[in-house]
Amino acid sequence: MNTPSRRHILASSAGLTLTALAAKQTQAAATPPGVAPTSSATSPRETARLDDGWRFHLGHASDPGRDFNFGADQSSFAKAGSWNWPQAPVAPYYNDADWNAVDLPHDWAIELPFVQPAYLDPNKDDERASHGYKPLGREYPDTSVGWYRHTFTLPPGDAGRRLSLEFEGVFRDCIVWVNGYRLTRNASGYAPFRVDFTDVANVGGLNAVTLRVDASEGEGWFYEGAGVYRHVWLVKTDPLHVPQWGTFVRSTVNGAAAAVALTTEVANDSDAACDCEVISTLFDPGGKPVGMARGALTVPPRGVASLDQQASLAAPKLWSIETPVLYRLETEIVSAGATTDHYTTTFGIRTIRFDPDQGVFVNGVHVKIKGTCNHQDHAGVGVAIPDRLQAWRIERLKQMGSNAYRTSHNPPAPALLDACDRLGMLVLDETRRMGSDAEALDELQSMVRRDRNRPSVFLWCIGNEEPQEVTASGGRIAETMKRLVNRLDGTRLITEAMDFGWGGPTGVSNVVDVMGFNYRPTAPTAYHAKFPTKPIILTETGSTVTTRGVYTRDPAHQFTSAYDVEAPPWAQTAEQWWPVCDAAPYSAGGFVWTGFDYRGEPTPFHKWPSVASYFGLMDSCGFAKDEFYYYKAWWDDAPQAHLLPHWTWPGREGKPIDVWCYANVDRVELFLNGKSLGMQPVVKDGHLAWSVPYVPGAIEAHGYRGDKLVVRERRETAADPAKISLVADRVKLAADNADLAVVTIAILDAHGRPAPEAANAVRLTTLGPGRLIGMGNGDPTSHEPDKTDTRRAFKGLAMGLVQARGGAGRIRIRAEADGLDSAEIVLTVG
Ligand code: GAL
Questions:
Q1: DSSP 3-state assignment of 508?
Q2: What order do you get walking across the sheet with 641-644 strand by strand?
Q3: Which of 502, 504, 483 is nearest to 494 (CA)?
Q4: How many Å lie between the centroid of ligand 1 and the Cα of residue 570?
Q5: For residue 660, which of 673, 678, 641 has the smallest C-alpha distance?
Q6: Which residues fall within 8 angstroms of residue 315, CB to CB, at 6 or more apart?
Q7: Strands 404-406, 369-373: pairing kind
Q8: 518 within ligand 1 shell (Cβ under 6 A)
Q9: Which mutation among 434, 601, 605, 606 tests ligand 1's pocket best, with the greatest number of atoms within 8 A of CB?
């Protein structure tokens, strides 16, 4: 076991050793390999995703007459039995035939038009711009409220079971009725919540869930969407069961072995005390049982009890960024000879250590944090991101060499964390609202309980740029939040993303374990000199404002240039922050603002017609901007010599073009039409530049490591757009009505060269078991719809998201545009 020096900060404030652990909870009834068949076969737990077959209707935030009479005469449909009134949408037999059919995840904001406000106060920040110019808010009562309905039957066999609905996240202020009974109201747009509807269930018959979702009030300063944008689950259990997020696994790595500590909660929803046995079986990443603990527990009537268990693992396989191996805990509850629950928890075994002089260590190996901050929307779908697209976004970030993700500024969707666990991406998990009031603590609690078993989560973030970060109250709030996190977890440290007040006499910086810095490049150095025992991480850094494919700033059209030259006054370009951070061993690394462009915050123009940010290293579709390759050069080892710009400049003959190369090799030689323009040595964390008088043809970079030519990159002058190319990220999809392909639409000339200025409108059609769920092109000023089958290319590219739907078979995707040869690809489903 490592002996920490005094200045090593442990990933535990409860003295739990150097090890953090993790696990993601899933509640599955399927029999995993190696588990005795009795375990799951007899488990009464059933979990079903309620994604398909919802009905949706806009309501109204100020006119009860257009809000199904909700609020008329102060009524709130709160009275039990209001289902007798069939005109009420909460009634089980309400006729919702004229409501729109929708599937989850669903974001109705994405379908609203962009709206330019009639009047702007010149002395105020434009909040409309921040939120992406969608008509949401008190000024737009007719588009800010949505109603959802879903019906399902419960078989007679469900009598005696506990029945609940688990909501992963709804934006926002969601009232839930089941069978006409008002059950809960959840304000947060990001925190998960659940309702137990056992008492009002219609077992053996039809059940109706009705939701009123009010997105009038936002929580952030960015696009937040509207609606049931994450999954909803129907969960059925025995009265004696593991409650939601009721397992906690942590491990200590001791040399070649690991000690695993388990805490299992068991809830008893009956009137008699229950004696039970808790059988915990651990499975290694190959599915082999490798450890077991059994223990007895008595659970009081209508109460919850918990049991601590231990197991030890010889030669555990450790989770890391490169080898993200996952273990599984199967928890079986047995009472009076019968299995009453079977609960699956996925976790990983790894250690995390923060060192104030050297940064972060994973399993004792130093890791520089090469992170990105991200919001949670994507082109074509808004915040309603299907699970596969969550994973695709993480894959894209990994392709850039990134190893960490900050969930700015809210708890993310579970599917995103699943991808981070599975693919090897560290996560800075962030709560939405800093506060010590009951509501804020409840949100923090649900995030920590939900995510504390995940190996990817390496640090908790309790706030971002809060005005209270320097006040005495802010310090007390941070202490209360920290106390809660330590009680619920205790294996990870906390930070806050601060933009001032580090080391102040009062405030948050004295409370957090790891000092978070947003921007202000010189502040960490000064802080480290003064507070040498506190680890440092750049919670937000960068951020160059770039437009993909644009090489001259164009304020008239509100396009920035793709060169790494422009950052807002509070921020830095890539080359202003990364070399400094890279050279500072005490800096754990940083999170660039942002990995992907997002809707809202149209910095630097801050005004119509810009509707999206320019910060991304990728655009809103995930197409790489050139800056992606700056980071890839220095965050990834693969030899690279990325050239920018493109080489199609009609009318610029003879004029100098700034040619940059993002290379991580030793030397690069540049050629114009086969003639050498000279060799340049590569400077660490920098870029190479040539000024090249434009001649049509081709530029080409040759990159050498030692004497060996290891990489070549070429840009050719394109002729007029002539044809379309279609490429899907995967050609084989699962027939699960959820899997998805990301389809890149590129406009090429007759010789297959990318046409960098092409803006053709491309129409996509699908035939077979699939559907197009959205399109995008990455243009931050585009007001074209996302839910469409026709979208203009922006700088030669557009994107379509095609989802498997309706069983196995072949999806034929066809792309057509006036004046261009069409293209077709086929995906196999099943
Ligand atoms: C930061 C803030 C982010 C985003 C960014 C834009 O100060 O934390 O949410 O607004 O600025 O530069």
A1: helix
A2: 641-644, 656-663, 688-693
A3: 483
A4: 9
A5: 641
A6: 256, 257
A7: parallel
A8: yes
A9: 601
Tokens in use for 618?
A: 């990728």
The torsion angles phi and psi of 95, rounded to 5 degrees, stand at: -85, 105
279-336 confidence digits (pLDDT tens):
999 999 999 999 999 999 999 999 999 999 999 999 999 999 999 999 999 999 999 9
pLDDT at 40: 40
601 annotated active-site: no
d(CA 77, CA 64): 12
| Token reading at 126 | 């434009």
User: Which of 375, 540, 543 is the pocket-test mutation for ligand 1 (most atoms within 8 Å of CB)?
Assistant: 540
Give the angle 56-57-63 at the CA atoms, nearest 5°.
150
Residue with tokens 């989850």: 104
Measured distance CA(771)–CA(807) in Å, rounded: 12
What would the two tokens of residue 292 be? 């077991």
Q: Around 700, how many Cα atoms within 13 Å sit in the side-chain half-sphere?
A: 14
Q: Are the beta carbons of 347 and 453 closer than 8 angstroms? A: yes
Cβ of 601 less than 6 Å from ligand 1:
yes
305-308 long-range contacts, Cβ below 8 Å, gap at least 24? 305/265, 305/266, 305/268, 306/246, 306/263, 306/264, 306/265, 306/266, 307/263, 307/264, 307/266, 307/278, 308/261, 308/262, 308/263
What are the structure tokens assigned to 112, written together?
Answer: 């609203």
Which residues, other chains included, contact 177 with Cβ-Cβ below 8 Å and sequence gap of 6+?
Answer: 77, 90, 183, 208, 209, 210, 211
Residue labelled with tokens 């879903």: 150
Which residues on adjacent β-strands are paired with residue 670?
701
Question: Cα(575)–Cα(591) distance, rounded to whole angstroms?
Answer: 14
465 given a catalytic annotation: yes
406-427 per-position pLDDT tens digit: 999 999 999 999 999 999 999 9
